[in-house]
Amino acid sequence: MTRIETPVTRLLGTDLPIVQAGMSWASSCSALPLAVSNAGGLGVVAAGPMRLPDLSRVLAEMAAGTDQPWAVNLPLYRAGADEVIDLVLRHRPPVLIASQGGPRRYLARFHDAGTRCLHVVAGVEHARKAADAGVDALVVVGAEAGGHPPPAMVTTSVLVRAVARAVPSVPLIASGGIADGAGLAAMLALGAGAAQFGTRFLASAESSVHNAYKQAVVDAGVDATRTVGHGLGVIRVLDNNFTARMLGLEAAGAEEALRRKTFQASTLRDAALHGDVVEGKLEAGQSAGLVDEVLPAAEIVAKIVREYRAARAGLPPIT
Q1: DSSP code of 169?
Q2: Which of 19, 41, 83, 167 is most exposed, with the fewest beta carbons within 10 Å of its own?
Q3: Are 265 and 192 in contact (CB under 8 A)?
Q4: Low-confidence stretches of the chain (pLDDT beneath 50)
Q5: Are residues 160 and 238 in the same domain?
Q6: Taking Cα atoms as reference points, which of 136, 141, 134 lies closest to residue 120?
Q7: What's the pTM value of the predicted model, to 2 decimals?
Q8: In terms of domains, do 66 and 24 share one?
Q9: What is the rounded CA–CA span in Å between residue 270 and residue 205?
Q10: How many domains does the chain have?
């Protein structure tokens, strides 16, 4: 097995510094995370939209399907989060990736169970607080990311470097705008110990989203995403009818009630499960413009490694 050793791979026990993002619906299953973990990366189950019986089944499938490290992603704002935490603890996942809440809520219980705890942050101050709380590593999300980018819209390259300088003792995973091995090399050079790939694995054979959603990602250019929902919970999505309506309302200064009604009328579920790429919320990052085809997840991992090697070999030597 090929190995690229970093502080993150040493912490998590993976062969490669490649993390598949926990994406609602896309990795709310075992197929994609298992494929990534068995290929040497860290596969991540997205617990956010899952019913408890489904989550319990998928976690059991993960434990049975690999002897490699894997993770559960849990947004702490979801309904019944405490009940979800109890369920996840019973399955003792090797790694937990938590977001949208404070780490003190869960940290001691998961550490007692032997789980490595990673926390998602979108700014230097949050990174310092999470580090002080005792998390094992940080996932640093920049503005290019799909789904929920940071409110301040600081790019991944700047934010990763800033967090690396602010908390140099904590391993970092960079996330946002990374789709290939060159991006991985760049993030390692900035001080991260791994890169998280979301949109790239969204367009994988094992991803659970509708094929029309995957094709929309493949067809997108780097300028095909927009941020909408300002004041409501900003998301980065691909252009479609929903996006155009929201942009029009925001540009016109429409009242919050109308913007909220329009925002809530479309869902990620409609796009992911039913293939509504016209009216649904097509969450995707700017890296969609770097994704040219749908591939099996293991092949994506291998391709990233080849590209990483090529990127390193292409750097000019010091003379």
Answers
A1: T
A2: 83
A3: no
A4: none
A5: no
A6: 141
A7: 0.95
A8: yes
A9: 19
A10: 2
